Amino acid sequence: MSDAAGLMDKIYRHQRHIYDASRKFYLLGRDTLIEALDPPTGGQVLEVGCGTGRNLIKIARTYSEVRCYGFDISSEMLTTARRSIMRAGLSARITLAQADATAFDARTMFGIGQFDRIVISYALSMMPGWEKVLVCAMKHLKPEGSIHIVDFGNQAGLPSPFRVALNRWLALFHVTPRLSLQRDLEVLTRSRQMRVRSESLYRGYTVRSVIDRAA
């Protein structure tokens, strides 16, 4: 794969073993996103940048009638994801692949061209070409489908010392919060006849957005 894959493998070669236990304290809003997915019965859900498979497992357990698909650029994370999915007894309902989120082709990977729901959880802040990720995701969305995003927000309500410490710490993992994400999503969707609804959570720590086709 690309240099990005090598970088992610380097970062998560050891981190993946404690990733879920540690991230639950600061990757806020993931479960709220999953609770709001409401996929149709028999639908297909795709996660872009699925990491350890934590979200896919929770989605599959929450919505027993859907098929789940996920991909990540890191082979190390996918190794952990496959093991976790197998232990959960969900290998028949969750399919994984390795791919670059900026230029993925789901039909090649999974034999499916479009999805009812697409999830992007704390991944845009790790991807330099995050706009390309969203454009590619939009191309894989069914006409009545929606893209569900949760990531770091604009931090507007957070104390300044906390913001400084947070961003320095995130930088160690090559994470760059997109402080103007809400505004950028509005511009990106408007130019493609789509709409976005966003809400800021936890004093701007987190932003949650839903993208679908404008009526």
The strand line-up of the biggest sheet is 3-2-1-4-5-7-6
- Shape field: globular
CATH class categorisation of the domain at 3-151: Alpha Beta
Work out the number of β strands: 7
What is the helix content? 25-40%
Unreliable stretches (pLDDT < 50, length at least 5) are 14-22
Taking the sheet with the most strands, its summary is: 7 strands, mixed
Q: What is the terminal separation in angstroms?
A: 39 Å
Q: What is the string of helix and strand elements?
A: HHHEHEHEHEHEHHEE
CATH architecture field of the domain at 3-151: 3-Layer(aba) Sandwich
CATH superfamily of the domain at 3-151: Vaccinia Virus protein VP39
Beta-strand share of residues: 15-25%
CATH topology of the domain at 3-151: Rossmann fold
Q: What's the overall average pLDDT, rounded?
A: 88
Radius of gyration: 16 Å
How many helices in DSSP terms? 9
Question: How would you describe this structure to a colleague?
Answer:
This is Class I SAM-dependent methyltransferase. Keywords: Methyltransferase, Transferase. One of its GO terms (molecular function) is methyltransferase activity. Its EC number is 2.1.1.-. Residues 45-145 form the Methyltransferase domain. The chain has 215 residues and is α/β, with parallel strands linked by helices. It has a domain at 3-151: Rossmann fold, CATH 3.40.50. 39% of the residues lie in helices and 24% in strands. The protein has helices at 3-15, 19-23, 30-35, 54-62, 75-87, 106-110, 130-139, 160-171, 181-190, and strands at 44-48, 67-72, 94-98, 115-121, 141-152, 194-201, 206-213. Strands 3-2-1-4-5-7-6 form a seven-stranded mixed β-sheet, with helices on both faces. Helix 7 links the parallel strand 4 (115-121) and strand 5 (141-152). The longest helix is centred in the N-terminal third of the chain and has 13 residues, at 3-15. The chain is globular. It starts with a helix and ends with a strand.
